[in-house]
Design a protein that fits this description.
alpha/beta, FAD/NAD(P)-binding domain, D-Amino Acid Oxidase, Chain A, domain 2, nine-stranded mixed β-sheet, 8 helices, elongated
Length: about 350
């Protein structure tokens, strides 16, 4: 088929790819930008994101990304006013034995001991949490957005406001070649797209794409994360907030009065994997049950079901923005370590800066 040229091709229509297109078009309305995905909009890792927005990072660099992300999301919602956003109080539960480690971590900047702890402890009076052994922490707030809804609203905005923006769904990129200062992307249906700039924002599925050697080069690890949907059988017991259990690296987030999400880290790591075989196993279920049984009374929660998504980690949990092919304007965004939504604005902007497409 006839080759078609663009200024920028972005592979991956998840939240990072969508925002990369938004910022590129916003900076230059005449830019010809193609956003392409092998599935539908936000049908990959983004579809399983909880959409949490808060200042948190396991490394200093990741924390800076998170802070910029919070700032940028606020600006985006001012411009695209129908993106839904909900504020939630952000609370933390940490054992006294882990408290000193917390004080030495980057999290210490945004968590503190509440001035009126009894107000918060009242929420947990009917739980098993013993505040002689655990400390309660609070932060300013955590935000929550429906990620898929946000992606569609941003894409609709780009379609209406930027003539050079094009979206293509259900087209798989089978190969990528660089020559003569151009980047060629060959599709499964025989087409070729030519561009000067390219961003690969395909999340963990980069390991099944053309840059598998990145795994060994930067020691990426894939971590399976399971989000369980819970029914709260005692609706007046808990606040409609986000609760982080530091000792277990697990989040409990309210969906409404009687439904919650419990996000846990599985014991499984994958380096090469078949995405069709990723499922919830008995070990995942037992981790969730242990957290529930540790902190809550019997029958507080019922597990209704769950879903699996993959987090890509570097050894220090800092996301990667790479230029894997010298002298070509190609950027790879990966290893968001489970924080794609809240880091997405910062990662998109930094990738575009590295390509000298935004200042």
């Amino acid at each position: 088929m006839i080759n078609k040229g663009y200024d920028l091709v972005i592979v991956g229509a998840g939240i990072v790819g969508v925002l990369s297109a938004y910022y590129a078009c916003k900076n230059n309305n005449n830019l010809k930008v193609l956003l392409i995905d092998r599935g539908l909009i936000s049908s990959g890792t983004t579809s399983n994101s909880l959409g949490m927005e808060f200042r948190y990072g396991q490394s200093v660099k990741k924390l800076l990304y998170a802070e910029e992300g919070v700032y940028e999301w606020k600006k985006i919602r001012q411009e695209i006013k129908d993106i839904k956003f909900f504020k939630k109080e952000f609370l933390g539960i940490i054992s006294n034995g882990k408290f000193d480690d917390f004080r030495e971590s980057p999290l210490n900047k945004h968590f503190n001991t509440p001035t009126n702890p009894n107000k918060y402890k009242e929420y947990f009076k009917n739980t098993k949490i013993d505040f002689n052994n655990y400390s309660l922490l609070s932060s300013n707030y955590a935000g929550y957005s429906n990620v898929i809804h946000s992606c569609y609203k941003i894409i609709d905005y780009c379609k209406k406001n930027y003539n050079g923006f094009t979206l293509m769904e259900s087209i798989d990129i089978k190969n990528l070649e660089c020559s003569n200062n151009k980047i060629a992307l060959m599709t499964s249906d025989g087409r070729t797209f030519i561009s000067e700039y390219c961003i690969l924002a395909v999340g963990p599925w980069i390991l099944n794409q053309v840059f598998k050697n990145l795994v060994n080069k930067v020691k990426l690890k894939l971590k399976k994360v399971v989000s369980f949907e819970l029914k709260n059988n005692n609706t007046n017991n808990l606040p409609l907030s986000l609760i982080y259990f530091f000792d277990h690296d697990a989040f409990l987030m309210s969906k409404n009065d009687d439904e919650y999400y419990l996000s846990i880290h599985s014991n499984q790591y994958f380096l090469g994997f078949d995405r069709n075989k990723i499922d919830i196993n008995i070990d995942d279920y037992n981790i969730a049950k242990k957290i529930i049984n540790t902190f809550f009374n019997k029958n507080n929660f019922s597990i209704l079901g769950g879903k699996v998504f993959m987090d890509v980690y570097t050894p220090n949990c800092t996301p990667l923005i790479l230029n894997p092919i010298s002298n070509y304007k190609l950027s790879v965004i990966t290893a968001c370590s489970g924080s794609g939504f809240r880091l997405a604005p910062a990662l998109a902007l930094e990738s575009l800066r590295k390509l000298n497409m935004v200042s």
